[in-house]
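From the shared-data thread, chain only:
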Amino acid sequence: MSDFMKKFYAQYIKPQLDAAPPEEYEMHLDLLKNELGYHALESYDKTLEFTAIHAFLLGLRVGQGLPQA
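Structure, as tokens:
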């Protein structure tokens, strides 16, 4: 993954994820974060980074094929 995408995640995607209201997922996210140890939390954060970047890129690819609204 390029350095650009990692910086893009840190500056744009992660703040959006942090600002999103968790609604019905709040309990599950809290349980997960409370149960994981330090190393597992680090792996969780890297996994979140990976999936968020690729979800964003998928949205760009799919969005290009959609007609203008």
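Helices lie at 3-19, 26-35, 38-64.
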